[in-house]
């Protein structure tokens, strides 16, 4: 990893800084909320490490940073033939996908780039330089498009729940799905931001999200930055929260939604969906089409990343458990489609899980 660090004085929620071709910095999310430090990404190897070590995390942000790390890399490379460029891309993209494979977004970006590469390779009018330029432009476009998509999903999600409620709402969310997890604005947190901007958010609740604490470190940070009225709860307080306070809706992100609507998301999502069903709270998943994988039929096919035991046994480097205890640390779980009672919010609208496959296939034609 390139060791040039920029300490940004202003507190920021911009996870990705890319203002100029070849210049990529990411906010080191391992250091939040105490330090705001941006790390320079100089090539694909830096991108892979930043994703693997979770300096950047969140499904859409993983895809965007991986793709931009490829642009930075390509910017310093020359290729004699289109075939050589195509082979280089395939190798680098396969490597980037391997960093954190449960989230489908990096694979989605890789598929888009490889399809374009294959088309350009076979097109006689396109030179190697033009091919490289078009691939870099496509990879760069993912960042801006993601922000646009998030704003659309924010409106769709907010309007959908407001159609069923005439008062201001209490919303619960889990993990971090905001600016830090995306190109900007956020998916589920984008819906919360939209409700807040409309003056229709009474209160947001966010969970701590053990063991990595994306909720207490990152979502709480974003909520505070935006002055959104909010309360942090530990993960084991959600049943009591739903019993004692009216929660009007639960909005979460997704790492992979498959064709039948089953959804892999941060560990703890499934238990919230079960609680939501019991307490009759509408449960929404907010997922751009880059998080939707119509090639898998059910959630049983999703391979769940397992992370090191030290995330459970240690906090801030200090052991908080007895030595030798066995730990199980899956990063994600799968929520069955039938528990997604509010709907799946996409950039094309809000769908029931059973509508998703047909609707998405139609919109993506
Ligand atoms: O392990 P993480 O922090 O990458 O997990 C992130 C999540 O599970 C998010 O909820 C998901 O990526 C949706 S992000 C908009």
TrEMBL record:
EC number assigned by the record: 5.3.1.23
TM segment ranges: none
Site (Transition state stabilizer): 175
Stored InterPro entries: IF-2B-related, IF-M1Pi, IF_2B-like_C, Initiation_fac_2B_a/b/d, M1Pi_N, NagB/RpiA_transferase-like
Pathway the protein acts in: Amino-acid biosynthesis; L-methionine biosynthesis via salvage pathway; L-methionine from S-methyl-5-thio-alpha-D-ribose 1-phosphate: step 1/6
Alphabetical keyword list: Amino-acid biosynthesis, Cytoplasm, Isomerase, Methionine biosynthesis, Nucleus
Subcellular location: Cytoplasm; Nucleus
Active site: 255
Pfam families reported in the protein's UniProt record: IF-2B
Protein function: Catalyzes the interconversion of methylthioribose-1-phosphate (MTR-1-P) into methylthioribulose-1-phosphate (MTRu-1-P).
PANTHER family, per the entry: METHYLTHIORIBOSE-1-PHOSPHATE ISOMERASE
HAMAP family in the record: Salvage_MtnA
Similarity comment: Belongs to the eIF-2B alpha/beta/delta subunits family. MtnA subfamily.
Name of this protein: Methylthioribose-1-phosphate isomerase
Species annotation: Priapulus caudatus
UniProt gene name: LOC106809146
């Amino acid at each position: 990893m390139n060791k040039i660090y920029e300490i940004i004085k202003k507190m920021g929620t911009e996870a990705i800084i890319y203002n100029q071709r070849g210049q990529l910095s990411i906010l080191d999310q391992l250091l939040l909320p105490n330090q705001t430090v941006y790390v320079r990404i100089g090539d694909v190897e830096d991108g892979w490490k930043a994703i693997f070590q979770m300096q950047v995390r969140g499904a859409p942000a993983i895809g965007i940073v991986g793709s931009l790390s490829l642009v930075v890399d390509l910017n310093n490379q020359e290729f004699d033939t289109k075939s050589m460029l195509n082979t280089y891309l395939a190798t680098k993209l396969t490597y980037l996908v391997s960093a954190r494979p449960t989230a489908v977004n990096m694979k989605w970006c890789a598929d888009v780039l490889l399809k374009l590469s294959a088309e350009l390779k076979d097109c006689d009018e396109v030179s190697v330089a033009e091919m490289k330029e078009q691939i870099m432009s496509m990879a760069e476009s993912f960042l801006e498009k993601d922000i646009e998509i998030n704003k659309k999903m924010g409106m769709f999600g907010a309007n959908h729940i407001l159609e069923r409620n005439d008062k201001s709402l209490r919303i619960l969310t889990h993990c971090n799905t905001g600016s830090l997890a995306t190109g900007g604005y956020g998916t589920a947190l984008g819906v919360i931001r939209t409700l807040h901007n409309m003056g229709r958010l009474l209160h947001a609740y966010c969970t701590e999200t053990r063991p990595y604490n994306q909720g207490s470190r990152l979502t709480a940070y974003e909520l505070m930055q935006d002055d959104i009225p909010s309360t942090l709860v530990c993960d084991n307080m959600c049943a009591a929260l739903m019993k004692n306070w009216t929660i009007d809706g639960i909005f979460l992100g997704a790492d992979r939604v498959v064709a039948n609507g089953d959804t892999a998301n941060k560990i703890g999502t499934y238990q919230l969906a079960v609680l939501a069903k019991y307490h009759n709270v509408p449960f929404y998943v907010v997922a751009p089409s880059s998080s939707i994988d119509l090639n898998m039929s059910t959630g049983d096919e999703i391979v769940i990343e397992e992370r090191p035991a030290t995330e459970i046994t240690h906090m801030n480097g200090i052991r908080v458990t007895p030595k030798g205890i066995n730990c199980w640390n899956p990063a994600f779980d799968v929520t069955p489609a039938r528990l997604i009672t509010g709907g799946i919010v996409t950039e094309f609208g809000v769908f029931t899980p059973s509508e998703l496959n047909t609707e998405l296939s139609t919109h993506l034609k």
